[in-house]
Amino acid sequence: MSSDTNRQGFEILCRDQGTQGRCGLITTPHGMVHTPAFMPVGTQATVKGMTPEELEELGVEILLCNTYHLYLRPGEEVIARVGGLHRFMNWNGPILTDSGGFQVFSLSPLRRISEEGIVFRSHLDGSEQFLSPEDAIRIQRRLGADIAMCLDECIPFPASYSYAQESTARTLRWARRCKEALGAQPEPLLFGIVQGGTFEDLRRQCAEELVNMRFSGYAIGGLSVGEPHEERIRMVEFTINHLPEDLPRYLMGVGAPEDLLTFVPLGVDLFDCVIPTRCARNGLTFTRFGKLDIRHAVHKYAETPIDEECGCYTCRRYSRAYLRHLHMAKEILSARLLTLHNLYYYMKLMARIREAIHQGQLKAFQEEFFRDWNAQKAQAL
Amino acid sequence: MSSDTNRQGFEILCRDQGTQGRCGLITTPHGMVHTPAFMPVGTQATVKGMTPEELEELGVEILLCNTYHLYLRPGEEVIARVGGLHRFMNWNGPILTDSGGFQVFSLSPLRRISEEGIVFRSHLDGSEQFLSPEDAIRIQRRLGADIAMCLDECIPFPASYSYAQESTARTLRWARRCKEALGAQPEPLLFGIVQGGTFEDLRRQCAEELVNMRFSGYAIGGLSVGEPHEERIRMVEFTINHLPEDLPRYLMGVGAPEDLLTFVPLGVDLFDCVIPTRCARNGLTFTRFGKLDIRHAVHKYAETPIDEECGCYTCRRYSRAYLRHLHMAKEILSARLLTLHNLYYYMKLMARIREAIHQGQLKAFQEEFFRDWNAQKAQAL
Prior knowledge:
2 copies of one chain form a homodimer. The first copy, chain A, is of the alpha/beta class. In chain A, 43% of the residues lie in helices and 17% in strands.
């Protein structure tokens, strides 16, 4: 970590009383992030439907962008020539880029893993591509990431012990190569990713070896891939016990509202997930009392907003009847207004979580959240 | 016209010296419209991709909404129950609704015209529907239009004289029924539509009879349906000569930038067209020097905005390289940013046209416009 030279890094501001939850501050070349934080996903250098100014107004402090997508289109060269991702997309806050590995596994119609890296086919044009740990670091640096991720393999669920063992060992070797590729450069911050499937000994071994390599933060990867909910909780809890207290922990790809209230109390600092934005485009919105499906016929004549308690632009101005109409008519404004609402909901929820931690009341807030959330009376409101 | 009771109506503010162009003011229940004006199209109760606040900031004073679409979805009942179109879509300025006739002819897979009205099939679900002149007025009133249009038949091009004669006579009878359906109500303003194909005597007869019925304004319909450019100009010029000086003239569905500079000098006051919004979604943008296609490979690395002279949000913040990427990646933000630019271009152009009229310099401005526009050097800028 390079906090000596330019004060980048992580600082814990306070800890909750009854849980492992904590509030912190990540300092990056493009500013600070208050944790626990939720990172909206800007896959193709845009959070679908939103301008950067709108995100800023919502209180978004950090975005995640997908290296795989940007590498294929428009290509690292385009973004690098224009001066990097921040300038390209007009977002001046911190950006975390993933390594591209996860998307290679989930989107590429063909891939072949070797010690050297991953051969895959572009989902756009079928062209053969190659991604090594060194490539992943080079691309993320050229994109101008504030936080970069090591190239890893996300192990599917279920996986045999022997496959998980072999894969995790390779992920560790790749992590070392990523660290070396970055060299002594202070930027970006580089996070290691703990894999190991659902096997405790592999998770522990992976965490310990990564910690020995001294990354700026640690991610828990390979979850939310189909494993049972209890298994996910067990793995997060177990893995966090093997990570340093004083560095950020990032739970990758997990981030339904219930997840935030499940994993912050276990000590997770960072989340990313497409749920708020993708659900919005599908007509699903969030309220204190659960999900509200704007497509539902019950909203046809409804003059009420999505959530009468909500202060977002969408809820201050538009009826469910109008929002339902826009969605049914496949209007762009539907995606905009519902995304705005869902991100507002998320940002507000994270702010309340941080506040609860500051007050040492996270447990009580968690109970209150689940009581309301499980009431499932949003539709009828 | 009801200007006696509530001052609705039209006032001419000034006339150009060398052309028939004039500046005016239309007063409606929801405020005033400075003419010549361009009306962005909000087909389904939304100008695709834009919020009402954004339109207002762009200087948009009046929108056009399509009765046909809104009648089919969400239905007049939904909009009426929520309190009308203005409240439904959160737009507090004037709204002009068309009668639904044009879309019936262009979108419905089947239609049958009788004296009574039009039987057609919904393009959404194939259901059989019926629209009479009285229906068209009832629906537009329930939507809460500020300016309503008479139900007419848009004669295709080419059409035989006998068909055009028969159709125009029916359009006139329907116009009378529309006027009667409105009764003595002061709202909405009701415009008659001059049809007659490309036959001067039919156009004259239609105009004269409509004028005798005393509408609040007159539209020139049935153009931009495939007729040669010269024919269109001839018909507009000819028709306007048979319309009252002191009432607004609306050229329906015509509105490429060149059209605005062609027809304002002939005395047209109102335009509507999907060009700025639809082109934006297809990657076509407007500049002083002609159209710029953002998809063009020449923009791949371009750090310049669409138009360096333009002061719109898009041009102040985003490079062509980024806009091209967004469009190629089919991102929602592309439609937003390019629509914003194109509408800004249109609003600015209309403001400059009005200014030129006030200065008695419309002819000179027209020449300047066409000199730059035809230079076609936008792509290379």
